[in-house]
Structures are given as structure tokens and as C-alpha cells.
Design brief:
- By secondary structure, the chain is mainly β.
- The chain has one helix and 23 strands.
- The protein has one helix at residues 2-31; strands at 34-44, 49-57, 67-70, 77-83, 86-91, 95-103, 106-114, 121-130, 140-143, 151-157, 163-168, 178-184, 187-192, 197-201, 203-207, 220-221, 224-227, 235-241, 247-252, 262-268, 272-276, 281-285, 287-290.
- It is elongated and about 75 Å long.
Length: 292
């Protein structure tokens, strides 16, 4: 009887360990960022069509950001989106091409062979590409420390309407939970800590060292937030309003967007001078700064 009880206990413990490991595996699958194709290769004759899926999963990814193209630039096949991660290949003429799905610099592909008389068919099987965690994140709400790491991020506007971000202490949706928020055009910079919630609308989120390079070809920086000493050298500059009412500038000691971090601010009605120092953050709204 004692042996039997020992076996039952051992079996029970094994089941618990299996369940725990399955649960951890399932959690890992939900937090991993992937691009998945459902086909590895396909053969078809001119005029044939074939539908495949290219689906993204994981925090910070949007299906609308997936780009699908082919290596022969439309000379062998025609590609069209069917919605919800589904795409159609229409064979045009003989040849071999690779249909490529891409998001945030991560690629997955299907080899497509087109030849007269070929029997339509292919090799099914998931082709999974892992998207690095430091790639950009789409608009949405993220729990810091769970969905995204704590740190400093650059938010880049993706729509003609103003972008918006909000940092909250909880997900209860109450006003008193809001730590800071802001509407912005161009770009903003924000620092978030573990346990906070970052909610972003009409903007893409980049870790500070992965943000797109600034376009300085016009000789000006316009609406946005910039790090002095990194994005723009310290010094004395001319700033100008770009709106018929007035512009606005703000200097801050960090990117927390807290009132206590503001060093100085003001409206810009006419051309004026502004001196900025290393380590400061410069925010411009309806204004531009002439680069030296």
C-alpha cells in the first residue's frame, strides 16, 4: 500500500511539473514576436492562383505593417492582399520568384515556380521568423516590464492627425491613474518604468537607440522633441513660429514629461534666439529651429 501511495504521489508531482512547464511554454509563445508563413514553396502554371497567409503575432506588432513583395518585381506573379493576413498569388508567366513577407526588417519567403503544364501544388509547412524584441512597436497599450522593457522611447507620428501618448500607474482607466500625457506632432520622447502602462495612438514606438535618423536636409528641425547634444548640438539658435497664431518651445531636464522637469518654456510669436545646453530636451510645437 505504501509503494502504491508513493507511485501515486510521484505521478501527481510529474503531472504538476508537466502542467507548469506547459504553462510557461504557452506564456513564452504569447510573448514571442513572430512572422509566420503557411507555405514553403509552390508550383503553378500561368493563370493559376494560390492564397497563402503571412501572419504576425506578439506584443507591439500590427498586421497592417506587413509588406509583401516578390523578387521579380511583378514580372512572374501578381500579388494582392485579401485582408486578415491572407494574400493571393496570380501566376503571370514562366519563371521562378520568391514571395517575401517583411516586417521591421524581419523576412520570410515562399519559392514560387511558374511553368506551363505544371500541376498546381506545393509544400505546406509553417515558416516562422522570430522578430527581435528591440524592433519597433505599433500603436497600442503596453505594460512596462511585461510587454516592453523599461527605458526611454522615441514615438514617431504615423498619421496626419496629431499623435497621443499616456503613461499611467494602472489599467483602471481613471483620471487619477494618469502620470503624464501629451498630444504631439512629429516625434516625442518618453521614459517609462516597470509597472507603468504606456498607451500610444497614431505613432510608432522605438527604443531610443533604434529610432529612425532625423531628416535635417531642410536646415531646420520642426515639431518634435529632441535631445540636446545628441539630436542637436548645444548652442545658440534662432527659432521661428510656423503657425499664424504662435509657436511654443519647452526645455526639460529629462523625458518624464513631469512639471518638475521643465526648465523653461514660452510662446514664439516672431523670430527669436534660444540657447540650449547638453543634456536638455527641446520640445517644439508649431515652430522650427534653424540648424547651424
Amino acid at each position: 500500500m505504501k509503494k502504491r501511495n508513493t507511485k501515486l504521489i510521484a505521478s501527481f508531482l510529474s503531472a504538476l511539473i508537466f502542467a507548469a512547464s506547459w504553462s510557461m511554454s504557452a506564456f513564452a509563445q504569447t510573448t514571442e514576436r513572430t512572422l509566420t508563413l503557411d507555405t514553403k514553396s509552390y508550383s503553378m502554371a500561368p493563370g493559376n492562383i494560390y492564397d497563402f497567409k503571412a501572419v504576425v503575432a506578439g506584443p507591439g506588432l500590427s498586421q497592417s505593417d506587413v509588406k509583401v513583395s516578390d523578387s521579380r518585381n511583378g514580372s512572374v506573379v501578381k500579388l494582392s492582399s485579401m485582408g486578415n493576413g491572407k494574400y493571393r498569388i496570380t501566376a503571370l508567366k514562366e519563371g521562378t520568384t520568391y514571395v517575401v513577407a517583411e516586417i521591421n526588417g524581419t523576412h520570410a519567403s515562399i519559392q514560387v515556380n511558374v511553368k506551363k503544364g505544371l500541376k498546381q501544388g506545393g509544400v505546406a509547412g509553417r515558416s516562422v521568423a522570430v522578430i527581435p524584441a528591440d524592433a519597433s512597436y505599433a500603436s497600442g497599450m503596453y505594460k512596462v516590464g511585461t510587454d516592453i522593457p523599461a527605458g526611454e522611447y522615441v514615438l514617431v507620428q504615423t498619421d496626419s492627425l496629431s499623435s497621443y501618448f499616456q503613461v499611467s500607474s494602472s489599467s483602471d482607466g481613471k483620471f487619477e491613474s494618469i502620470i503624464t500625457n501629451d498630444n504631439f506632432n512629429g516625434r516625442s520622447i518618453v521614459t517609462v518604468s516597470d509597472g507603468q502602462y504606456l498607451n500610444v495612438t497614431r505613432a510608432k514606438i522605438y527604443s531610443i537607440d533604434k529610432a529612425p535618423a532625423l531628416d535635417k536636409s531642410s536646415g531646420y528641425l520642426t515639431d518634435g522633441m529632441y535631445r540636446v547634444g545628441i539630436d542637436i548640438p548645444a548652442g545658440e539658435y534662432k527659432i521661428f513660429p510656423t503657425d499664424s497664431i504662435s509657436g511654443y518651445y519647452e526645455l526639460a531636464s529629462n523625458s518624464s514629461h513631469q512639471f518638475a522637469s521643465i526648465i523653461g518654456n514660452g510662446t514664439i510669436s516672431n523670430e527669436q534666439y534660444l540657447t540650449i545646453e547638453n543634456g536638455q530636451y527641446l520640445k517644439l510645437s508649431r515652430a522650427k529651429i534653424a540648424l547651424k
